[in-house]
Amino acid sequence: MSTELRCEQPNQGAPNFIFILLMIIGIPCILFPALTLFIIPLVIFSSFCFFIHYLYSEGHFSEILSGIVIGIIITAVAMIIPIVGPIILVLWIIYNIAKAVGSIKGLVPDAIISILLVASLLIPFILDVNRSPYRHDNDLPERIACAATYIIISAVYYFRMKNYPMTTKDYLFRFSILWISGPLIMLLIMMIAMSIKAAFRITVNTTLTPTTVTQNVSAHMRGETLVNAYTREVTRNIATTTTHVLPGAGAVAASVLGQVAPKIDQCESELIAEALPIKDHEFLLDNTYQTNTDHNFYRYDDFDDKKINNFVQCANAKFPNQHINKNDILFYYNETLFGSGDHGVILTSEYVCCSLGRLYESFIINYADIKHVSIKGSFNKTITILSQQKKMHKIELTQSNKGAIKLYELIREFSL
Predict the structure, then answer these.
(1) Per-residue pLDDT at 207
(2) More confident residue, 16 or 254
(3) Which residues contact 28 (CB under 8 A, 6 or more apart)?
(4) pLDDT (tens digit, 9 = 90+) per residue, 355-384?
(5) Domain containing residue 410: CATH number
């Protein structure tokens, strides 16, 4: 991820530009069908180039590289530790495949729109190619129908994008995803299959071992001489075949898959969250923010005493200079896998306290010091807080996306 948080203001006029681009692409194809085979590949190629540029400019390549390193480390662990290692390898592959499946689901609406747009442009071309030179077929009604379909679908996409407050760059990113969503789905499916196939590799080793064998020789005649029966030692090479199941490159492939897949649709996830309405000052009593254990989210009037006490105890040990009082806590998000409650995020009327595991950042920041807050992610959510001193804090939440979005809304409300 880039080290600086982007704080550009949404461009409300960008959807109009996207709609104009759709018209620039579609009208020449309908009026001059022969141009279709040139325009559509050009649009797909340009979209792919912008997609790569977006990932690079947003700093996602470093995350992909770190994913490859993690995959290599997990593969090495699986080779060193006989039983636990392969289990970790399998769980890592399943985790990344699950993220990819979520991204595929997010791409389906764009893929459907893309197929309909391309089909409405290809039909006039097919009609033009199949036209007989000896007959002057009138395909004007079909062209009008295709043009109407293309315009209607473009309008649907326009109004869909208009609901999301994005920057121009993000709008262009979503536009590029529209045209390459089909190939991206195929690529993700191929990467899933490749990561499963390459999870383990089977090696067969054949070893020739010299072995001494006792051989009985019967009595026989050698010329005119009788040779009595005897035994002799004979050396033979015995072939031994050994089969080994070793970790393959599946972890590396799954790591790349797990890092690339969420980047495809996390932009949309972030924008949906950014578009959420700000609650009024009565939000503390809003039913939206009442305790919901399914979301790992708790309000002050319905805390789980055991969990909140565990959190306060651990947080006070982690932040000895900041005494945290249970009575000051308004909201609590539980980030523990088995529900002990010692890790999570609390909101008071003055500050945010994030106390997570050793692998994650823990911090306390006052609302007055918050300059900007955003949320990203599809499979898991990451709340990014930019302080007035340009320092960036990340809250990585894995237990409930809905609870994470509530937490984001409240932090944004408190910091206004």
Answers:
(1) 78
(2) 16
(3) 35, 39
(4) 987 778 889 999 989 888 888 876 678 898
(5) 2.30.29.30
261 domain residue, yes or no = no
Q: Is this model's pTM higher than 0.70 or not? A: no
Q: Which residues contact 193 (CB under 8 A, 6 or more apart)?
A: none
Tokens standing for residue 126: 């097919």
CA atoms within 13 A on the CB side of 411: 34
What is the structure's pLDDT at 2?
Answer: 38
Q: How far is CA 90 from CA 199, 250, 255, 337, in A?
A: 8, 9, 12, 19
Amino acid at 12: Q
At 225 the pLDDT is 78
| CB contact at 8 A, 127 and 30 | no
CB burial string 305-331: b at 16+ within 10 A, e below = eebbebbbebbeebeeeeebeeebbbb
What is the domain range of residue 383?
Answer: 276-414
- β-pairing verdict for 363-366 and 297-299: unpaired
Beta carbons within 8 Å of 235's beta carbon, 6+ residues apart = 210, 211, 212, 213
Mark whether 65 and 133 lie in a shared domain: yes
* CB-CB contact of 103 with 261 (8 Å): yes
Paired strand residues for 94: none
Question: Lowest mean pLDDT: which of 113-122, 220-229, 291-300?
Answer: 220-229
Lowest-confidence pick of 58-62, 125-129, 392-396: 58-62
CA distance 137 to 408: 60
| Token output for 101 | 């499946």
Q: How many domains, the chain?
A: 3
Other CB atoms within 10 Å distance of the CB of residue 148: 11
Q: Are strands 329-334 and 225-227 parallel, antiparallel or unpaired?
A: unpaired
